[in-house]
Structure formats: C-alpha cells, structure tokens
Amino acid sequence: MATTAVEHADVTAAHSSEPTGLWSWVTTVDHKRIGIMYGVTAFFFFLLGGVEALLMRWQLGAPDQTFLSPEAYNQLFTMHGTTMIFLGVMPLSAMFFNFMIPLQIGARDVAFPRLNAFSYWVFLIGGLVLNASFLLNAAPNAGWFGYANLTSKEFSPGLNIDFWVIGLQILGIASLAAAVNFFVTIMNLRCKGMRMMRMPMFVWMSFITQMLLMLAFPVITVALIFLMVDRYFGTSFYVPAGGGDPILWQHLFWIFGHPEVYILILPAFGIVSEILPVFSRKPLFGYAAMVFSGSFIAFLGFGVWSHHMFATGMGPIADTVFGLTTMLIAIPTGVKIFNWLGTIWRGSLRLTTAMYFALGFIAMFVIGGLSGVMHSVPPADLQQTDTYFVVAHFHYVLFGGTVLAFLGGAYYWFPKLFGRMLDERIGKVHFWLTFISMNLTFFPMHFLGLNGMPRRVYTYPEGLGFELWNRVETIGSLLLGVSFLVFIYNMLKAWRAKVPAPADPWEGATLEWSIPSPPQEFNFPETPTVYSRDPLWEHRRAHGPLPEPQRVSGAEIHLPNPSYWPLVTAIGIGVFFLGFLFGVTLPVILAGGALTAVGIYAWAFEPPH
Amino acid sequence: MMHDAHALPMDDTATGLDTRKLAIWTFIGSECLFFASLISTYLVYRGKSLVGPFPHDSWTSPSGEHFEPILEIPLVTVGTALLLFSSFFVVMALAGAQRGDRKALLTWLGLTIVCGAFFVGMQVYEFYHFVHKGLGYTTNLFGSTFYTLTGFHGTHVTIGVIWLVTLWILAARGKLPPEKALNLEIAALYWHFVDVVWIVIFPVVYLMR
Fold first, then answer.
1. What's the complex ipTM?
2. Which of A116, A306, B72, B103 is most buried, most CB within 10 Å of its CB?
3. CB contact under 8 A, A179 and B30
4. Mean pLDDT, chain A, whole residue set
5. Minimum CA–CA partner of A221 in chain B
C-alpha cells in the first residue's frame, strides 16, 4: 500500500498543510476528524442524558415529591435510556472506532471515507430529531424498549412515539453504514504482516461489534417498520383487536436488544484490553482466548433474547432454554475477567489514571455481571423484573463497565487525539469521585429493588423504607455530575495549556504510538509492516525505543478528496423520514427521496479532482 | 463509486478481496436478517387473520359477502421464472463486460432489466388486483404481512432495476470498459440476492398451504 500511495504523486500540495475552517469540517472525510465530531456530539448528548437522569434523581430524592409530573418523568426515563444507548455510548464507541481502528491497523483511513462522513451526519440528524421532541413537549414516553401495545395509536395518540420511531430508524441507517465500513476496513486495510491474530484486541472487539451491528439492526428496523405502519396506516401487527400479538414486538426488539448490550460492552472490553497490558508492561494474557471468548459472547448473544421476557409467561421449556444459554454466556465473560487479572498478575504496574479506570472497570463489571447471572434464573428474575434491582444491574455493566472503560480510553488516547496530556492529578481526583459516586448512586438500587421498589414510577409513598437509600442515591448522582465537571475541566485545562504530548507517552505497544500526536492527515508517511502483536515493544526490545517521529510534508501522499455529498444524502434521508413524523406527508417523503437519490448519484459520479 | 478517487488506493488488500465487493457481501449479510424478520413474521401470523379474504381459501363474511381465494399462482409463476432467468442474463452481461463485448453486455443487461421491470409490473398489477378483490393493507393480518413482505422485496427489485438501468446507460456511452466490470459485478451480486430472497418468498407465500 505504501508504494501505491506514493505513486499517486499527481495530487496538489494542498494536502501538505491541513485545511481549516468550518467548511473543511463539513466536507471532511478524514477518519480522525469524523472521530472527533462523533466524540464531541456524543459527549454533548451524553451530558444531556446525564441531566435527564439528575432530574429524575432529584424527583426521587424524597417521597411524594411533585418536582416532576408523572408525564414528564415518563419522558425523562425514556429519553435517558434512548439517549444514553443510541446517542451517547454507541457514538462514543464510534469515536474510538473512527480514531483508533485505522491507526491501530496501520491504515491511512477507513475503507469508505465518504460513507464514514455520511454515517456521522445521519447520526447527528437522528439525534436532533429525537431531541426536537422536547421542543413540542412530546418526548418519547414508553421506555427505551417501547413495548407494544403501549406504543399503539390507541394508548399513545401523541407525537411522542412517532419521534421515537423516526429517530431510531434514522439512527439505524447510521449504525448500519458505519458497521459495513468498519467491517471492511478491518478485513481489508490491515497493513503488511498484520494477520487477524496479530490485531490489537481493541480492533478485534470492534470487529465483532460490527458483525453484531450488521446482524442485529435489521431486526429492529423491521420491528419499527411494523410499528410505523400500525400507527400510520392502521395495520394490526401489534394490535390484539386485529389478531396481532404485542409479544411479537418483544421478540423482535430483544433479538436486536440483547446483541445490542454486547454492542455496548465489547468495545469497552477492547479498550481495557489495550490499557491493562501497557500499564502492566506485559502482553495481554491469553490473547487467543480473548478473541474466541469475545466471538463466543457475540454468538451466544443471539440466543438469549427471551431472558428479557420471562415475565411474559413463555412456559417451562423456553424459560429453561433461555435461562441456560444466558448462564452459558457467563463462561466466556469469566474467561475475559481472568485473562485481565492474568495480565496484571505480576506485572510491573504503573498506576496512571487510565489504569485506575481500567481496574475500576474490572471490579464494577464483575458486580454487574454477577447480578446479570442472577437474572438468568427465571423464578428469581420474576421477582426482580421491573424493580430497581434490574436498574442496578444494567447501570453496573453500562456505567461501571462501558463508561469507566471509555473514561480510561479517554485518558489513554487523549494525547493521541489532541496532542495534549490530561492532568494525572486531576485525573485521579476524577477517578475517585466517579468511582465513589457511581457506587453511591447505583449500589443501593440493589437493596431498593429487592425490597420491591418498582422502576419507571415517578414517586413513592412515605413509610415503605425507600427513603434512606433514595436519598443516598440522589446525593451520589449529584456527585457523579460533579465528577464529569472535573473531567471537562481537565480537558479544557489540557487544551489551554498547549503542552504538546509526545508521540508515545505510555510506552505503548501498538502502531498508533509510532506516529506524532496528533497524527498527520495521512497517519503514516509510509504504511508500516508488523511482525508481532506488539510491534513497538518488539522494536524496543531489539533496537531500543523508537526516536520521536518527525512531522513530514506528505505532499506526495494521495488522500481522499473532501465531499459534501454525504451531508446532502444524509439530509435527504432526514427529510424522507420527517415526511412520516406528522402523519404521512407524501410531498415531503418524495422530496426527501429525490434529494437522497440526487445525493447518491452525485456521490457515485463525483469527479476525482 | 463509479470512479472512486475518494477511496484509498488499495490494489493489494489484506484479504486479496476487492473492498467494494466485500462491502456488498457484508451488506447482503445484513439484508438477510432484514428479510428473515419479515418472512418470520409472515409465518408467525399465517392463518391468524380474524377475517377474510384468505390466501388459499374462499370466505363468506357474516353479512353474506363472498370472497374468492386471493392468491393466483400462474401469473406470479411467470414473474418468478423471469426473475430467475434474469439472474442468468446478468451473469452473461457481466461476462460480456469483462471481455469488452459491448454488444453482448448491452443485450444481456437489457434483457435483465426487462425481466426485472416485468416482475415489478407484475407485482403492481397483483397488488391492484388484490385490492380490487377486497384485500386491503389493513383488512387482516394476511393483507398486512403479505403487502409488507412482498412490497419490501418489490422495492429492492425496483432499486436493482434503477441501478442496472444506470449501468446500461453508462455501458451504452462506452463508460463500462472491462477494467470497470466490477461496477456491474457488484450490482449483479445485489441482483442475485434479491432473486434468492424471492426463491424463499415464493414457496412460503404462494405454495405453502
């Protein structure tokens, strides 16, 4: 690849200095810029979801409060879940995919740079559509899983569910396009010598995540199509009066929804598997076992969906089968946990902030994993269904798991993204604040749940013994909010300090640390060749540390041209779906379809220069 | 995509597979789950319609209105046969494109397009006819699942026809030389997939009683 790239010497010197200005961001197809755009947008949505959570916690801080109306509370818990999953965690994963996958496999960009920009724009439009519902005081209000037939026109006549359906359909397109792109990127753009079993573990876990995305998202697309036609045309897919079965929604939703939880956690597994070896100064323990256990988790993930549905009364056989498959998933997950422990075992540990978060991840994820196994036992699950125990469980895996890993990844890769170091002392304050406050917030939910406090109910009466722990949780959640302010302060401080980060601040093992921080537009002046899983450590052992890489002109390197057609196509898709939002509006749908078609054709025939 | 200076130079990919070809295969894998969900729903709701008309049986409503069985096999069999033949035609068109035989390319690709267009036309006629016979989209579960499943398949065929027409125009203007035959190959892969899906839908919907 290096040679072919250099042969394309007919490119103007425009590439030697990076273009700046708003337009350069709108038309960018550079995976690093798109990664940053994903990160900034998703972090904003993540904070929004956090504020939604704080409002709910404030309401629940004491019994019989009227700070929030039941209607507002319904909208907030629905938007909190939907936002955190689809607009927070998934696009934050997409930020890591975008920025790190090409760097870690030694590529100059993703396989389809314009498709990558398209994914981002569609995601942005989907997120805006979903949140625009607040402006009409019609935010989605049937839970992030939108169970039929609560979502039917009969029981939800307002626009709330329409915003939810349309928003999710748009977001699904973004996820699918990105999944195809990253799958092909990882398959085809690996540099010389990077066999599959030499890929960094983050790339492996991302690779598996893309497969889950490709196979899970079409199912929710279909489920949402049925809901759309039920609402807009009066069909009876989920309407019992017309012969339909609301349980069909649950099956389709969870066939998507369970793989989705692995979509949320596998990238986090990958990030932790990058951090632990570097700060233990040891290669990842049990590399192959990590790969296969990740694949096994993904495979089993498609065979456990009905453990979300024990309360529907599926009968003893289905209950048993889904209980057993669910328990089975604990095995590969346990393999991973022991491999992480094996990695730090007798390592020469460096307790950086990134390492703190990675270690915190292991502990918190184990707690969430254990309560998860409890749910695989149908009789126990029936007691826990719809209580705060379930809320405790998924916050331990999603916050204690995914978010802690992402924060670790942020401290680990921030120097590479922005060329600045985050402050380690503030970082440790940030870690302890996060760690303590998340446990204050989420651990008492176990007690409340087992004592029978139902989830998704806007208040509780005095005298049920719920007061103390709810008060503790609310204090914890406020502290958790403060911890994110500390994080933001740390990032702003790093940004203003303008102290450049070295290329390899952590003595990393993988290719991204071999190039300047932040990387130049073309990533690698010459695409690298690797001979092992830890190419930089290999080099360090044989020849000592790499010299600090110099910035080079790169004028002769052929890079993809910027393009605004991905944005035009994305807008077309947005308009198309908006045509369904306020009742079926054919002119809008046709206009959107036409704009999409124009975008696709212009994209396909865009002249090379 | 026709002339993609935006894609990175990738003459030698890590797998040796062309990147765009790998992408369409990946996309097809995803589409399998899309149609699997639609077909499963059709099967789950088979025979669950509360009122007629029914696919294979006649029905008399409580008010005495009589409905004949909806499905008519002969017409759709012709459509199915033409769609199957079109998969063969597109292979011939690709062979023509690869050896630079423009006449063969245009002829076979034209035949593919005609077959695809006939299939879409057949479906439009079928829908119109069924509505006329009393099966609306919301009449019963059969109507809803039938129109949704075959409608989404028909949409895929229509997109395929538009794609192939685009390539035919390019070929007619001499812009599909052998080194760009991959553009047709990718469309052909999609076309075969749409065809294969119909091979499942046809027996499930029309033949299975």
1. 0.93
2. A116
3. yes
4. 93
5. B34
